[in-house]
Amino acid sequence: MKNKPLLICLPLFLLAAGCSTAPERQPAPIAKAVTPKPPAPPKPPAKKPAPPVVKKQVPETKTYAIDDGKSTFKVEPSVPAFKIDPLAPPVEVPGVAAGVPATTTAMTGSMVQGIAPLAAPAPVVPVMPAVAIEDVALPAGSSPAVIALLSEADRNRAAGDLDTAVMATERALRIDSRNPALTYKLAQLRIKQAKPQLAEELAGKAALLAGNNLDLKRKSWLLIAEARRMQQNYQGAKEAKAKAEGFFGR
Question: Least packed by Cβ within 10 Å: which of 84, 179, 181, 186?
Answer without folding.
Answer: 84
